User: What shape does this take?
Amino acid sequence: MTSLIAGEFRKLFTTRLWLWLLVGAMGLTALYTSLLIGFSEDPDTMTAPLHSPEGQRTLFAVASGGANTLVAVLAAIGITGEFRHKTATATFLATPRRGQVVAAKLATYALVGAAYGVACLFVVTAIAMPWLATKGIEVGLLDNGLPGTYAGVIADVAIFGLLGVGLGALLRNQVATVVGLLVYRFVAEPILTGIPALDSWTTYLPGSASAALTQVSLTTQEYLRAWEGGLVLAGYGLLFAGAGALFSMRRDIT
Amino acid sequence: MSVYIGPAIEAAGLNKTFGDVKAVDDLTFSVERGTITGFLGPNGAGKTTTLRMLLGLVAPDGGSATIGGRRYVDLPEPGKVVGAALEATGFHPARSGLSHLRVYCTVSGYPLARADEVLDDVGLGPAKRRAVGGYSLGMRQRLALAAALLGDPEVLILDEPANGLDPEGIVWMRRFLRRYADSGRTVLVSSHVLTEMQQLVDQVVILRRGRLVRQGSLAELSSGPPWALVKTPEVERLLAALGEGVADLRVERLAPDALRIELAAAHIGRVAVDARVELHELTPGRDDLEQAFFELTTEHESEREPA
Ligand SMILES: Nc1ncnc2c1ncn2[C@@H]1O[C@H](COP(=O)(O)OP(=O)(O)O)[C@@H](O)[C@H]1O
Ligand SMILES: [Mg+2]
Assistant: This one.
């Protein structure tokens, strides 16, 4: 299995997509961080003040929002690309037990997701520390429950890697998977979670489970506990991947 | 460990239907070790589908396919047993040929230097660091062949390897495969063009509309008696030597020193050497073979499916 994972990393690093999406995730994180700090003194802001522990946790948690969707997209492209570019033939010739290929991709993109999460946490730190210092706010990086937020962010982005692999394994079609992911994350889910009457079940949607995992709330919605959110989110990823490995990955490669 | 001594490749009762197309229909054949076997048939005959079933990429509706006595998925190190270059194998356009092969070296546990070796073997050394998106069709065929060679396998399965190669490339490919088989290994190579193959293969498996129409040696394929073109300054001595023990030798005189003789070229050659007759040319007849292939693979009126 380690050689399969090493092979997946080799595939990833021999094209440039990972780099562009990493730049994108870091840029998005920088944007979210700047908006949050920039509007922190706005009277209408929903976030807690940045000198409070809760406010600081919210600030660092934006790293997950910056990275998670793009990691899911990277992972989805990583698996659907095998079909789009017809490298599936070579891949399944080398590893005829196709479930092993799915498992190797799950492990690979979870690791990649964790690394993206770490990179985006550095972006928040690099922007927030000097900026907040000018406002007279000292951030203790190991205080105010921040280590728990870092763990939540890293776990969240890693699990989005699983989600992307799982959905891609299930759908196999690259355009459908990537468009589906983006439309769901940026259109469908915000609409659904914006309807208070649906709260009792929208808390189980991936986006809400993700927010639960990082324990950050920018809406009035009630979230699951962190570990529950992590389980729900990982459940989606593994469910898709399992169904994909059982059904669509078994289909003929012609 | 027991040693498997059966045929290199065996297909038994293979079936595959796509929608309402019967792509492969109760197909049984085997490929002996150490041979180059041509897998022949017109486009759409079911060659690619059959090869993909042999390799575990397409699931047969029925029947079995084994390589070295085992199903492909059951081979612990498949790349060391069989290497395959299939039609419609893809490459990521942004990845270089070298990077592509290194991925599969890593996955299969071969040293990375193996990728450079096989790229040199197929003559892609100078282009190996370029993105595959810029490769010609012929270069992609060579890269696919290089990938098949990575594990230094006992059996090579090649699907229409001559497609996209220029005439020089085809000659190169033939030499390459001949050398490969001469080292005792097995090659199964598909083609829809008999002429690409007839100078190369020992055995043929001929397919039409998913069914086996003929399996055997190339010589057995030609329907008429064998013949050869001979040029010799000693026509009468040759005929005398050939005529011994032959009831009615059929000879056509094409020129004062050129004959069309209805005997196998190998036989004529042997007799000429024994009788110390000087030969300037000895060419086995070919057109019967093409005719036979054409007849075997062309649809007959009575077989056409009712509309
Ligand atoms: N994935 C597929 N879906 C539907 N039909 C297919 C598919 N693959 C092959 N076929 C059909 O099966 C038949 C055999 O095709 P193929 O094995 O590619 O033949 P060959 O390689 O001899 O040209 C053809 O009629 C082809 O159209
Ligand atoms: Mg074909």
